Amino acid sequence: MSVRTFASSSVARDVNFTLHKESFSAYNCDEPSLNVSYSKDDLIKMYKSMVVMRRMEMVSDGLYKAKLIRGFCHLCTGQEAVAVGMELALTAEDKVITAYRCHGFTYMRGGSITSILAELLGRKAGISGGKGGSMHMFTPNFFGGNGIVGAQVPLGAGIAFAQKYLGQKAATFALYGDGASNQGQVFEAYNMAKLWDLPAVFVCENNRYGMGTPANRSSANTQYFKRGDYIPGLRVNGMDVLAVQQACAYAKEWTTSGKGPLLLEMETYRYGGHSMSDPGTTYRTREEIQHMRSNNDPITGLKQVLLEANVVTEDELKAIDKAARAEVDQAAEEAKASPEPDMGDFWTQVYQKGTGVPQLRGREPEEFHNY
């Protein structure tokens, strides 16, 4: 990435960059421009967001190992650039739906750190309890439990259908991993989205290993951005937050201008395993992981860009790092202090108010709960 000078305007003072020539590969569409421009505030916001997200996942790792988080826990460490770059290209009217590794997207869509960590801990302050703030995000496989691998993709197509039906100039970004890319419902969603020219952006987060199988062993075609067939696609360097933002802005413009759906493949990498129960080293080498951390880390990469462009100083970045750590650590204490939900809460918010039934059956045939 080359850095150009500040704009002459003392008001805007945008910083201009030229992305690496291999940031994008296109299929049946033009590549986005490699020339991008950002304000100092946006650049710092991207850096801070990724640092907070990384720290939040590190804390989640510790809480899981302390047996405070139970069940499954899927961390997005290493993949922060996808959620951060995407959000910078969207507005509150746009929608995001995903499944595994959703903590970062939830944070970027407006969920508080406390509410996310409390949700993982199963506490009352958790975001599913409705106290995490207004969100424009759907997480069917995690914060709500709805479906199996890839099930969020046709739901995303449905949300995009609603946007078009209501005449909204907004897009839905439906995310899934390379491990879900062979699901039949994904291709069914492609078909409907193209038939009706829905404002749907299908985003494959290709972190190479699915649940633990290398992509070339699970997929006959690993060029995921070409698998929409009749839907144009774009492969993106998902470890570069600026490339991600540019690609998502391009995708939003494409879909909301009436051109129909678009498929994005974010080439990214998770540093940990599929979940906390997966060490992540049985199907790849430690050397490979270390190489990716050393040469492709999204936070380190943006840090170098900011320093070379004289956007911030090393000391200012250290202060951001320190503040992010303190913010997440404080949120973790608040989440742990939150009480567990009352048993009665398990039987609420099942139906929309006014549409419920007088009784809801429990886990056993003779168990009923009255409203």
Automatic annotation (TrEMBL):
Functional description taken from the UniProt entry: The pyruvate dehydrogenase complex catalyzes the overall conversion of pyruvate to acetyl-CoA and CO(2).
Gene3D superfamilies in the record: 3.40.50.970
Keyword Oxidoreductase: yes
One Pfam family, short name: E1_dh
Top-rank taxon, per record: Eukaryota
Keyword line: Oxidoreductase, Pyruvate, Thiamine pyrophosphate
UniProt enzyme class: oxidoreductase
Gene Ontology molecular function: any one: pyruvate dehydrogenase (acetyl-transferring) activity
Catalytic activity: N(6)-[(R)-lipoyl]-L-lysyl-[protein] + pyruvate + H(+) = N(6)-[(R)-S(8)-acetyldihydrolipoyl]-L-lysyl-[protein] + CO2
Organism from which the protein derives: Dissophora globulifera
Needed co-factor(s): thiamine diphosphate
Enzyme Commission number(s) of this protein: 1.2.4.1
Protein name: Pyruvate dehydrogenase E1 component subunit alpha
Dehydrogenase E1 component domain residues: 49-342
GO biological process: pyruvate decarboxylation to acetyl-CoA
